[in-house]
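Quick check before the chapter quiz. The format below is the same one you will see on the exam, so make sure you can read both the input and the output lines.
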Amino acid sequence: MTAYRSSMTSPKAKGGESTLTVLLALAVNLAIAIMKAIAGVITGSAAMMSEAAHSVADTFTEGLLLTALRRSERPADRKHPFGHGKERYFWSLLAAMSIFVSGAVFALYEGFRTVFGEPEEQSSPVVGYVVLAIAFALESVSWAQAVRQVRRQSAAEKRSAREFLRISDDPTVKTVFLEDSAALLGLLLAFAGISLHHLTGSSLWDGLASIAIGVLLAFVAYVLATTNRNLLIGRQADPVLVRAVWAYLREVPEVDQVVDLLTMAVGTDRVLLCARLDFDDALGAADLELACVRIDEELRQRFPDLDEVFLEPVPRTDPALRQRVLARYGRLLSDGYQSGGS
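Here is the expected output.
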């Protein structure tokens, strides 16, 4: 069984690094958007105009991510007893939609207009080459910062970068990384379109490059929207954490059986836990209360990501509860433990 290792970086430090990553991406994308728009007007390139729209979408995205970071850190209150952590997922979902609406749709429109419309002349392609080169250099700076953060946090959690991006509950890091990666690939596509238009004299290549950029942005938007949708709905916590909590509870002397274990990510590095436990029948009421208090404290010490912990004493033989557990997980629970009584 894989041991759970909490991140070596504090939530406050990770929040600061995420803010730095987003701010750097915002500044870079704003500067690039202006340059691309000017170059698009000068060259008349559909691919360059699509890249300008791409950078505008990225700029809006960074603004939404900054909003996500600020609002998700607000403390819990009467109306939101579990805090505002899921605001990060909501604003990140809007950021994904911004990439699609502001970037992909415009790029596809420009591409199809160029491919199926009247042939267009290209002017001053050198301007396009220079702007794309500068944009690639600037985007590389933002991308390098995103890569550093991904590598640092994945190493702290003893995971590969790919696995970290797949299961991370911080959508801001994934958004900036994928956005910057798509930006670099989009620049290469735009360069190919402008170059082939320049060499062949046919605007078809420029239009095809614009369509390819639109498809790329639509794919990135879909991946990010799916990630944030799952987190908003209420995704289970990291499976490694779930297995580690179950393993700990199974070894608690007062616990005879772990009947059910429910977790949900309620924010970045914040997990709600509900454990249904069959306690030793010999325990008195006072002993049971003290055991619950001790278990709660030990869980929070071992697993800092646990934000709220609920321990519910239940009999393992209850047929209705058993049926709910089996309906959710099957006879063998997907995280590696068996339901009570099986």
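If your answer matched, good. Residues 332-342 have pLDDT under 50 and may be disordered.
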